[in-house]
Amino acid sequence: MLDIQHLYKGLGGIQAVQNCSFSVTEGSITALIGPNGAGKTTMFNLINGILHHDSGHILYREKSLNGLQAYQRARLGIGRTFQAIRLFPEMSAVENVMLGFPHYQDNFFDIFHPLAAHERHVQEEAMNLLREIHLDEKAHLPAGSLSYGQQKLVEIMRAVASGADLLLLDEPAAGVNRTLLNSIIALIKKLQAQGKTIMIVEHDMGFVMNLSDHVIVMDYGKEIADGTPKEVQKNPKVLEAYLGVKK
After folding, report:
1. Which residue in 14, 115, 161, 210 could disulfide with 100, CB within 3.0 to 4.6 Å?
2. Please, are residues 95 and 41 in contact by the beta-carbon 8 Å criterion?
């Protein structure tokens, strides 16, 4: 589904991504891991078009993404969440999810007017998504009043509302309590069962190893390992990157 071919990106005099190549299989859960500063979030930013690479190729469903802006990539089916939650805190949870629907985004300011028929339909769809994560009873509360973990769930559902087939989830487990972490795990598994392809950047190794089908490891902007969770855990390059241990 996604092919990264010999990608390079420099940021502030540092080579943030160096000759990275890997593939993501459709329907898989693929984790992108590595120590701090390894280039993981930069890679996500390159995939969804927030940043543009210096050289190399990004192919999505065999179509080159080179030169396409973030909104164009979103329309092709690439959704994204962020390390720092990007909800509108004063708007309700359901309004935030509604903004994920492409046919609603163009009418953003209509939220300040009585709901037209098509808007009521979008609201119903958004409510259905919130129901899936058991937040329908809090749908009309300001998003900023929800717990951190609940806000992460809402942000994931806003990405789902976009109709994305490839979801890039940046640290979905960070700062989340165990109860809501289990909810996030269940949601990700459910999305995979529905046919979504998911990429995760995450520092929680237990979360990654138990959830992922495939793991890609970066260090200093380079891809140093690629395989199943068990294969990656035994890889000497990974042990050296994380622990400074050579085998």
Report:
1. 161
2. no
User: What pLDDT is recorded for position 26?
Assistant: 97
pLDDT at 223: 94
Range of the domain at 156: 2-243
Concatenating the DSSP letter of every residue in the chain gives: -EEEEEEEEEETTEEEEEEEEEEE-TT-EEEEE-STTSSHHHHHHHHHTSS--SEEEEEETTEE-TT--HHHHHHHTEEE--SS----TTSBHHHHHHTTSHHHHTTGGGGGSPPPHHHHHHHHHHHHHHHHTT-GGGTTSBGGGS-HHHHHHHHHHHHHHTT-SEEEEESTTTT--HHHHHHHHHHHHHHHHTT-EEEEE-S-HHHHHHH-SEEEEEETTEEEEEE-HHHHHT-HHHHHHHH----
Exposed/middle/buried for residue 73 (C-beta within 10 Å: 0-12, 13-18, 19+)? buried
Half-sphere exposure (CA, 13 Å, Cβ side) for 182?
Answer: 3
State the Cα–Cα distance between residues 225 and 22, nearest whole angstrom: 10
**Count: domains in the chain:** 1
- Of residues 118 and 18, more confidence is placed in 18
Tell me how crowded residue 137 is: count the other CB atoms within 10 A of its CB.
9
Residue 83 has what pLDDT? 87
